[in-house]
Amino acid sequence: MVPLSVVLVPVFLVITNVGWNNNLLGVIVPGAATPTGVFLLRQYMLTIPDELLDAARIDGASEWRIYSQIILPLAKPALAVLTIFSVMWRWNDFLWPLIVLSRNEMFTLQVGLNSFQGELNVQWHLILAMTVLTLLPISVVFAFLQKNITTGIATTGMK
């Protein structure tokens, strides 16, 4: 909900104090739990009928068992959508890895793609080939999880 540019300096200071500069943890961890993901999962889990959870409580299931055996399997489509969004957002992120990483061998593909062009000479054929290669992992993630997206649209929380 809050754009990265607003919290960029405080998050960078935290990453620096923890010692995660020039480390992939400094790129991954700050974006692991987003408010958008929490909101998406909350809204989806509100569609799960309370009667289903009450029936599990009557049968003697603990709250952790209800969560792991009822709520999580029913929330699989929402988790798939959140996974696709998170992978796309992190994979396509340019600004945050550019700030956190300064060594060439640690660059993400998008930052490396930017550093691939020269000052006076730009080899467009190589940049375009690398751009196509950066699209492949996102396409693979979507291909594996698209079935769960259609399942999430077709069902409303009950199976």
What report would you give on this structure?
The structure is a single chain. The longest helix is centred in the C-terminal third of the chain and has 31 residues. The protein is mainly alpha-helical. The chain has one domain: MetI-like fold (Orthogonal Bundle).
Enumerate the spans where pLDDT stays under 50 for 5 or more consecutive residues.
none
Radius of gyration: 20 Å
In N-to-C order, the SSE pattern is HHHHHHHHH
And the CATH topology? MetI-like fold
The average pLDDT score comes to: 84
The description of the largest β-sheet is:
none
Number of domains: 1
**What share of residues are in beta strands?**
under 5%
Keywords for this entry:
159 residues; mainly alpha; MetI-like fold; 9 helices; elongated
Task: Set out the fold topology.
Blueprint: H1 4-18, H2 24-28, H3 35-45, H4 50-58, H5 63-74, H6 76-92, H7 95-100, H8 109-115, H9 124-154
What is this structure, in a nutshell?
With 159 residues, the protein is mostly helical. It has helices at residues 4-18, 24-28, 35-45, 50-58, 63-74, 76-92, 95-100, 109-115, 124-154.
